[in-house]
């Protein structure tokens, strides 16, 4: 249980099996035994920078000024032994061992609204194969979920306490019905072991959300390039639908990269959308098959299409290698680094 309390009653209202955590100067929380600091903060609608919520990105690093934490399964590659000795911790993995005073290290972006993290139950209403080893999963929630276009939810694998992250492909105006795009990971717990094997329409699933800070920038006055690799298209679909519906971006260029035609999906949907909106351009690209469309690595196709990306911004999503390649390409084309927003589909760290 997490309760956001003010400094006035902190200390008088001591709850069993909780620790008092102070973040910065004015956020004070009760964090339950075994609960991560990030989970408690987001449930209390106290924003903390974060991205993957599984210990792999380091965005949620914080400094423990007083008290002791359990680092849980924080991997060494994200939080080194030296950093631990220096009092650093990952907000998404660390649980308090005592009352704490901490400060966040990442930048808190106040330009977008933040929505409290909550648990939901949902019913699967659609589960369809849409591309090679790729499924569309649509669920109906038991309550409205408020989120920003680009954010994700964590789906709980039945019979475990393990969750996996999947980005909403549906726009925020669909508060009860969420669409996800899921790629099969051979041997993967959530995909091979559940979504591509036993999950079926009518099943009840548990999830928590919204999570992540991959959002459409609030006042986006410049044209945007969106590049998705595989199911990295999911949050971009949400962003495109939201941006077009509310006329939030002057011009949008959506690139979707795959190896072969069988990897592409929603081609008709985006083609029609581009015919309906003069300011929306859609360009799928294939790296291993010649066809009538763009051929080559999606990042090379972008470089060939733009002689300069100065004065533009970008939203990149997909496997880390693709995202890295896209960042390099856009910088080569003179896009300002602070205008490049990214979501990497990192794989969960193996249990210690
Ligand atoms: C912010 C974010 C958003 C995401 N959004 C999406 C999305 O919209 N769509 C999407 O398709 N994916 C998305 N992902 C990726 C997704 O969360 C999962 O990582 C992916 O689906 C694989 O999960 P899994 O449980 O099937 O595989 P895992 O069980 O995590 O396995 C991954 C790999 O590790 C191997 N492995 C696992 N455990 C062990 C072990 N103990 N020893 C040795 N090898 C092991 C597996 O064999 C497999 O090759 C996102 C990830 C992040 C971080
Ligand atoms: S390491 Fe905590 S959010 Fe990524």
From TrEMBL:
Iron-sulfur recorded as keyword: yes
Necessary cofactors: FAD
PROSITE patterns: 2FE2S_FER_1, 2FE2S_FER_2, FAD_FR
Domain of life: Bacteria
Domain 2Fe-2S ferredoxin-type: 19-108
Cross-referenced SUPFAM superfamilies: 2Fe-2S ferredoxin-like (SSF54292), Ferredoxin reductase-like, C-terminal NADP-linked domain (SSF52343), Riboflavin synthase domain-like (SSF63380)
Limits of the FAD-binding FR-type domain: 117-217
UniProt keyword terms in alphabetical order: 2Fe-2S, Iron, Iron-sulfur, Metal-binding
Annotated GO MF terms: 2 iron, 2 sulfur cluster binding; oxidoreductase activity
Keyword Cytoplasm: no
PANTHER family found in the cross-reference section: NADH OXIDOREDUCTASE HCR, PROTEIN RFBI
Name by which UniProt lists this protein: Putative phenol hydroxylase reductase component
Organism: Gordonia rhizosphera NBRC 16068
């Amino acid at each position: 249980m997490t309760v956001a309390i003010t400094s006035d009653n902190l200390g008088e209202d001591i709850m069993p099996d909780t620790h008092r955590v102070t973040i910065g100067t004015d956020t004070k929380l009760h964090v339950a035994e075994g609960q991560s600091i990030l989970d408690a903060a987001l449930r209390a609608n106290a924003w903390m920078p974060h991205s993957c919520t599984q210990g792999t990105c380091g965005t949620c690093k914080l400094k423990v000024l007083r008290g002791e934490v359990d680092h849980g399964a924080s991997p060494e590659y994200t939080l080194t032994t030296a950093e631990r000795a220096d009092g650093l911790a990952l907000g998404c993995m660390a649980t308090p061992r005592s009352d704490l005073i901490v400060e966040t290290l990442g930048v808190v972006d106040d330009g977008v609204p933040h929505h409290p993290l909550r648990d939901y139950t949902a019913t699967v209403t659609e589960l369809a194969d849409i591309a090679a080893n790729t499924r569309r999963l649509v669920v109906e929630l038991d309550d409205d979920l408020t989120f920003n276009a680009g954010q994700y939810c964590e789906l709980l694998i039945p019979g475990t306490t393990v969750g996996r992250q999947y980005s909403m492909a549906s726009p925020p105006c669909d508060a009860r019905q969420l669409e996800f795009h899921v790629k099969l990971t051979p041997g993967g717990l959530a995909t091979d072991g559940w979504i591509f094997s036993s999950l079926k329409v009518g099943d009840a699933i548990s999830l928590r959300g919204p999570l992540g800070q991959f959002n459409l920038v609030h006042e986006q006055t410049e044209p945007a390039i969106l590049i998705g690799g595989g199911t990295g298209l999911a949050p971009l679909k949400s962003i495109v639908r939201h941006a077009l519906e509310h006329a939030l971006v002057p011009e949008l260029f959506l690139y979707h990269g795959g190896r072969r035609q069988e990897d592409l999906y929603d081609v008709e949907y985006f083609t029609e959308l581009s015919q309906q909106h003069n300011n929306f351009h859609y360009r799928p690209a294939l790296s291993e098959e010649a066809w009538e469309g763009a051929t080559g690595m999606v990042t090379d196709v972008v470089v060939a299409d733009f002689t300069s990306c100065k004065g533009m911004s970008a939203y990149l999503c997909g496997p880390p290698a693709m995202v890295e390649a896209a960042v390099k390409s856009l910088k080569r084309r003179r896009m300002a680094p602070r205008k490049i927003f990214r979501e990497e589909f990192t794989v969960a760290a193996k249990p210690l």
